[in-house]
Design brief:
Blueprint (H helix, E strand, L loop, with lengths): L2 E9 L7 E9 L5 E6 L9 E4 L3 E5 L1 E6 L14 H15 L4 H17 L2 E7 L6 H14 L2 E6 L11 H11 L7 E8 L2 H5 L5 H14 L3 E4 L8 H11 L3 H8 L6 E4 L6 H10 L2 E4 L1 H7 L5 H6 L3 E4 L4 H4 L4 H16 L7 H7 L2 H6 L17 E5 L11 H8 L5 E6 L2 E4 L8 H25 L4
Parallel strand pairs: 1-4, 1-5, 6-7, 7-8, 8-9, 9-10, 10-11, 11-12, 12-13
Antiparallel strand pairs: 1-2, 2-3, 5-14, 14-15, 15-16
């Protein structure tokens, strides 16, 4: 079956950054993109047609930092900022005690919200330490809804726990590059200065994680100190003890190259930025989460030095949203404010970070991230006709400044419709969402009870 999306404002994100003000995207029967172009060249004979008049047609958005398990808990910031920090701390402690059923419920809600807001590919942080039943619970709900996923997990055995090596190999055999390219695995290590200084992480484990990622040819997710330190003084003290930042540490270990994706880079200095550029490493920026913590990754500086940067949301418990449209807008606004330059970060540049640059960071730019013939048909179509986006003058900027993810009217992953008016109102997906909400509420109440008794 051939699907034709026609009459839309098509932004391809190809190497020429081609835009067709009145264009089409043809989706071939195999779930790949057939042709893209202006309506003057629109082919006839499509089996199905979607009229995108007044709509923005984009590559599916890519979220490179997310945590399914945070869909278990309430969102928003308490009145006291210290309470928010406290919540973040006990969330981290409690997540490793989640049961597979809890993780599955959270993953169901997460996948439904992600695709509903135009996200077609996401990198999750695993709730556990790579146990087979937890990994299955993380990935299966998203797979059922059609979401493309990369699960970041410890691939060498957590330093404070024990992951069965059989589980690790089984996870790769079952999930890495399988399901038609919808599921992938990545490595994850804790290498920040705070964790090294407090012995939560060790050099041996960091190096083992890097070597494993290199041998498996997978990405390696590294969390920066700005995402771990509860106070600025924690980071200063940790660097004083270790004598180096996590970027310098990775460089000294020989564990800094194009496989590395550094998250939470709010503490990066000029030397760190230079080392990241020289190594060809990538940086993942979660704008609203970092702004909430008061530490902002210097993305404009990184980009000027040639570092590939991408966007994420982090967990919704701390930012309240997994809407990538919101993150694109926040990226431009925050970076321009930090730089004191309204031209430091354009909406177009921020969109690159949520599409083709994100695909490049995880090694999938050959398949996703732009609307080009032969690539996977990951497509998001957003309606610009509602009152909150009028009057439209420059569609791309207009949408990302005034629109939201829930303006998505059609979302495809590998040519499969995951959001669309033709989907039934009562479907297995909606049933899973209702069940997920019930289980998530129960799990959260259980965590509160454990916390009250000093278990967490």
């Amino acid at each position: 079956m051939t699907l034709l999306i026609k009459n839309g404002y098509v932004v391809t994100m190809d190497s020429q950054r081609s835009v067709f003000e009145r264009g089409f995207v043809e989706v071939a029967p195999g779930g790949t993109i057939g042709r893209v172009g202006a309506m003057a060249d629109c082919p006839a004979g499509a089996t199905s047609v979607f009229d995108a008049t007044g709509m923005l047609v984009l590559p599916g958005l890519i979220n490179l930092q997310h945590r399914n398990w945070q869909h278990l808990v309430p969102r928003g910031v308490p009145e006291r900022f210290s309470a928010w920090e406290e919540q973040a701390t006990w969330l981290e402690m409690g997540r490793r005690q989640l049961k597979p059923g809890d993780v599955r419920a959270a993953a169901t809600l997460a996948a439904a919200e992600l695709v509903a807001t135009g996200t077609t590919c996401v990198v999750h942080e695993c709730a556990g330490e790579g146990q087979a039943d937890i990994v299955d619970a993380e990935l299966e709900p998203g797979l059922e809804l059609g979401l493309r996923q990369v699960l970041a997990l410890d691939t060498v055995g957590a330093p404070l726990g024990s992951t069965d090596l059989c589980d690790i190999e089984r996870n790769f055999e079952k999930w890495h590059g399988t399901r038609g390219g919808l599921t992938w695995l990545a490595g994850s290590v804790t290498a920040d200065a705070v964790s090294i200084a407090t012995r939560i992480a060790t050099e041996q484990h960091v190096l083992a994680g890097y070597i494993d990622a290199r041998e498996r040819r997978i990405s390696l997710i590294v969390r920066g100190a700005a995402g771990v330190a509860r106070h600025a003084g924690d980071l200063d003290e940790a660097i004083r003890k270790t004598g180096r930042s996590e970027v310098v540490h990775l460089m000294e270990l020989g564990a800094l190259d194009e496989r590395v994706l550094l998250c939470d880079g709010g503490a990066l200095n000029d030397l760190d930025c230079s080392l990241l550029a020289e190594a060809g490493a990538h940086v993942v920026y979660s704008p609203t989460r970092e702004a909430m913590r008061g530490a902002v990754t210097p993305v404009s500086r990184l980009l000027s030095m040639g570092v590939n940067c991408a966007l994420g949301t982090d967990g919704p418990a701390l930012t309240g949203s997994v809407d990538m449209v919101e993150q694109i807008k926040a990226c431009a606004m925050i970076q321009n404010t930090v730089a004191l330059d309204p031209g430091a970060m354009s909406i177009e540049r921020a969109l690159e970070m949520a599409t083709i640059d994100a695909a490049r960071a995880i090694g999938l730019a050959h398949a996703i991230g732009s609307l080009e013939p032969g690539k996977q048909a990951d497509v998001a179509v957003f309606d610009m006709r509602d009152v909150h986006m009028q009057v439209v003058h420059k569609p791309l900027s207009n949408f990302f400044c005034c629109g939201r993810g829930h303006d998505a009217r059609l979302v495809l992953v590998a040519g499969r419709t995951v959001v669309g008016d033709d989907l039934p109102a009562s479907s297995p997906a909606s049933d899973l969402q209702r069940d997920g909400a019930r289980v998530c509420a129960q799990a959260f109440q259980s965590q509160l009870a454990q916390r009250a008794h000093g278990v967490l």
